[in-house]
Design brief:
Helices cover 69% and strands 12% of the residues. With 339 residues, it is α+β, with helices and mostly antiparallel strands. The strands form 2 sheets. It has a 5-stranded antiparallel sheet. A two-stranded antiparallel ribbon has the order 2-3. Strand 5 and strand 6 form a beta hairpin. Helix 6 crosses helix 7. The longest helix has 82 residues. 12% of the residues are buried.
Length: 339
């Protein structure tokens, strides 16, 4: 009998351990109902957020299979799915009223953990933004320095070019005044530089021919370039539009360079032809000063024509103003009787 009681007691202990293990293995929260509280909630295939299965909206009811950490495991469209517990609310039943504080306490704890995680993420994001702002400020400072340096490098050639044009304009104004009021003294000064009397004292002389021919050649070259360019552009428009943008830019740049070279080369070649002719007749020094005199004479005539045109326009404007005043405010005439 004692052996029988011992064997029964052993069997009972074994069954108790088996039942205890089975109870531990069974999901504790199986059968619980949860309701989604967020407007939209992502459904994942695992607690590690590996694959997105879909989205559920506020009010969606979930039949929990188990609670794994802060994730609810449930069945979604025939698949095992997971959602975050802090985005849901547990539906409490009257029969489990004693378990309510425990569940609410667990949910509050999970919510606090989620908020702490969000705060940590926000703090990390703030630090990253601060670092990015510092890098942006540093890059902006470097760009400003480079732009300032580049502006300075570009400004020096522009300043030199401006000084050259200013001196050339000043020389043109002085030459124009002398050409208009004292042409004999101007011719004598240039003849001294030439070493012989090769420049006549008259305002209009044969030395005006080279710059006039050069001007006519420049006009003809411009008309030719624009005419040929317009004709080719009209015929090859469809072909050019079919090319890539970079190819179009290269072709347009080459065409512009060719046009500039042609329009500038024609007057230069005409002046060079006359310079060589003067050099054969009077020498290199005289040819140089004769060419300068001929070019400056054309500049002087151009400036004189501009002054005359502006003077005529000013006089016409003054006459027009006087006419308007006479029409708007007519004068009164009085007859003086002789006694």
């Amino acid at each position: 009998m004692k052996n029988t009681h011992k064997s029964i007691a052993g069997i009972a202990k074994i069954l108790f351990v088996i039942l205890l293990l089975a109870g531990c293995l069974l999901p504790v929260h199986a059968g619980e109902k949860w309701v989604v509280t967020d407007n939209e909630l992502t459904v994942w295939d695992s607690p590690d957020y590996l694959k997105k299965l879909g989205m559920v909206t506020r009010g969606y009811e979930i039949d929990a299979i188990a609670i794994e950490g802060d994730m609810i495991r449930f069945e979604y469209e025939g698949m095992t799915a997971y959602v975050a517990t802090y985005c849901c609310r547990r539906v409490l039943e009257e029969s489990v009223g004693q378990e309510q504080p425990v569940v609410e306490e667990g949910t509050a704890k999970q919510t606090r953990q989620a908020l702490s995680a969000e705060k940590a993420v926000a703090a990390t994001s703030a630090k990253v933004e601060q670092v990015a702002d510092a890098e942006t400020r540093g890059s902006t400072a470097v760009e400003k320095a480079l732009n300032t340096k580049g502006t300075a490098l570009i400004g020096i050639p522009l300043l030199v070019l401006g000084i050259v044009f200013f001196l050339f304009g000043l020389a043109g104004v002085v030459f124009t005044v002398c050409y208009a009021f004292c042409p004999k003294k101007l011719a004598a000064w240039f003849n001294e530089r030439c070493g012989e009397d090769v420049i006549p004292a008259k305002r209009f002389n044969k030395l005006l021919l080279p710059p006039v021919y050069a001007g006519i050649g420049a006009i003809a070259a411009n008309m030719l370039v624009f005419g040929v360019g317009g004709l080719l552009a009209g015929q090859l428009q469809e072909t050019v539009m079919a090319w890539q943008e970079s190819t179009q830019m290269i072709v347009c740049g080459v065409a512009v360079c060719i046009g500039v070279v042609v329009t500038q080369a024609v007057p230069f070649m005409i002046l060079r032809h006359w310079y060589l002719k003067y050099r054969e007749e009077h020498g290199k020094k005289a040819a140089r000063w004769m060419t300068i005199y001929s070019i400056m004479c054309l500049v002087a005539i151009y400036l004189i024509c501009l002054v005359i045109i502006y003077a005529v326009m000013a006089m016409l404007a003054l006459l027009l103003i006087l006419l308007i005043l006479c029409v708007c405010f007519p004068a009164r005439y009085y007859v003086v009787r002789r006694w």
